[in-house]
Amino acid sequence: MRRRPDTELIVLARRGSTQAVEVLFDRYWSYAWRAAYAVTADRGLADDAAQEAIERAFRSLDRFDESRPFAPWLKRIVVNRAIDHLRRSSRLEVLRDEETTFHTWAAGESAEEDLRQWAIADAVAALGVGKRVVVVLHYWLDLPIEEIAGVLGLPVGTVASRLGRAKMELRTVLEEDRVL
Amino acid sequence: MSSDLERRIREARAALPEPDAEATRRAHARALGAVRHRRPRVRLAVLAGVALALALALGAGLGTLIAPSGTAARGPVGLGFLPEPGWYVLQSGARATSSAPATAMAANVGFAADDAVRGLADSSGLPYATLLALPPRGIVITATFTPLGEPWVDAIIEEGKLPLRVRDAVADTGYGGQVRPEEPLGVYQLRALVNGYNIDVHVYFGSLRPSSSLREEAQRQLDQLVVRSGRTSGNAGARVEGAAAKASAPVIDRTVVCTMSFIGGAHEIEVRAQKGFRSGGSSWDRPPLAALTTGSAGSAAKALDNMLGWVTAGRPSPTATVIPVRFPDVTYPIATWGTLAMSRTQCRPAATRFPLTAKGLTGGPAGALGETFDCGAPRRVLVRMRAVLESPASLREHRQFLDTKTPIREGYVVVGTQTGKPLVYAEVFASGKANLFVARGCMPD
């Protein structure tokens, strides 16, 4: 079962095979969660968004076009859920009447293993949330600018210029830190 | 040069962390549940959804379809449970959307601390920690409310009436096995459309085959399920939220991310916990206290500047101070600086959930003279502070802190990395007890 391609597993899952669901889950859960984490930069939000996305994807297998690859479809669901959670959490922070800030994500243990990647990731995390999400969607989740514009509901030009400003900011920070 | 920068940014995604075991377990259960709940009638349901959309286009109007039945609305309105005597309730809020369903929980045992997020029901709708420890006569009821609007779901769930009946529930032993496989729970599920909401109720019993008296007890609480009509005014909804809130103990529960000071080439956090001491009377000369600091204390005037937060328990005497009196001219009375405080300058709100547990840490009771440990830490750590108060209160800004001056019955502080590694767990109680647990590698000061 574990060697079967996605398309076969999806057909089996539609017929109610829990084994097929298990294999698909094992194959894509980590991918989905890391995508959610990349967008939200928060473990709690990533947990919620990725779990909802996985549930929604499996519930909607009937509507999935198996002539297309599964991963990008799942990624799109994850990204949408993650952005919803991010927006909601930002609103909550405002409602709580405290200083609103998007706390940075941490590379954690891997920071010790690869200081350079940690520094770059940290610099990405330190960007303002608008710029950070654009960078993450483009460079980490490989979404083209047009698709990012669609996901965020922004004009393509805005996304492109935001990405450009983010890169300039990253370059400045990373050069100061002698990472580049 | 630009392509080099882009390449390096792309490579940095390798530093993304992995999901933890609990999130994976929950997602796994939800994935299996999603497929299990799909019905052969789904295609029919989609057709029904299309028909519904056509009907709308023709002007039939959704409003008539989701209007509450005359028998459904009862008593106050909202989305949650009013507690039966001896029961505890939590709810996520009075609003529900398709992307953010409302959840409510009721239990005849106290909820585990991990199952509440800032005093509210966990949005996952699964009180996992409570279920893991559910005794044989324990009952937990969860309800998820999603507004109508997903035709393929709405069409396969039948219109229902309140009160929902436990006897109509179907056994869902597979899910129970997922929660606690070594000692399976009895799990029953009910789904119904009520007042414009798709309601998914799970009743968990501590034993696989609950007795009739337990089922009756569950029914009495289920009778108290309140489902606001979609047409009800916001004020009425607020009344129910208030009623549900009254049933819960006043709790402050905040998780923040704090920046560590960089001293001697390392980031470090200091935790101090002390047992209470009193020479007479009911107030504490030195209340039980747990405090977090990063960096050196500095001068007397800046002695609190490096404190990330503290929590005390019991009623402090007017002379009780936040820090030991090292500076004869300057003291920091708890009465002024708060029974609980969190730094506003070094910490920021975080939406991350972080369990209140000493799992993986070592330690025990703290003495009256206090125990202090220094722990190496990453640049930023998560800090969760939770307090059960003697009376309702909220945090207010005071100098560089958010604080409350209300006496606390029990307080907790946990610290961990953003990747989930626990560093510190401390708890203090109004009885005077204080316990402190720290990660291996923390050094006594």
What does the secondary structure layout of this molecule look like, with pairings?
The complex is a heterodimer of chains A (180) and B (445).
Chain A: H1 6-14, H2 18-40, H3 43-59, H4 70-95, H5 110-113, H6 115-125, H7 129-140, H8 145-152, H9 156-176
Chain B: H1 2-11, H2 21-36, H3 42-57, H4 62-66, E1 79-81, E2 88-91, E3 102-107, E4 116-117, E5 120-121, H5 128-132, E6 139-147, H6 151-154, E7 170-171, H7 173-179, E8 186-194, E9 197-205, H8 212-222, E10 225-227, H9 234-247, E11 251-259, E12 262-263, E13 266-274, E14 289-293, E15 307-312, H10 334-337, E16 340-343, E17 347-349, E18 362-365, E19 371-376, E20 380-389, E21 396-398, E22 401-404, E23 408-417, E24 422-429, E25 434-438, E26 443-444
Antiparallel strand pairs in B: 1-10, 2-3, 3-6, 4-5, 6-9, 7-8, 8-9, 11-17, 11-20, 12-13, 13-14, 13-19, 14-15, 15-16, 16-22, 18-25, 19-26, 20-23, 21-22, 23-24, 24-25
Characterise this structure.
Chain A has 180 residues and is mainly α. Chain A has 2 domains: 1-103, RNA polymerase sigma factor, region 2, helix turn helix motif (Rna Polymerase Sigma Factor, Chain: A); 105-180, Orthogonal Bundle (Arc Repressor Mutant, subunit A), CATH 1.10.10.10. Chain A contains 9 helices and no strands. In chain A, 46% of the residues are buried. Mean pLDDT of chain A is 79; it is low at 91-114. Chain B is of the alpha+beta class and 445 residues long. Helices cover 21% and strands 31% of the residues of chain B. The longest helix of chain B is centred in the N-terminal third of the chain and has 16 residues, at 21-36. Chain B is globular, with a radius of gyration of 25 Å. Residues 39-77, 173-177 and 231-249 of chain B have low confidence and may be disordered. The chains are: A mainly alpha (180), B alpha+beta (445).
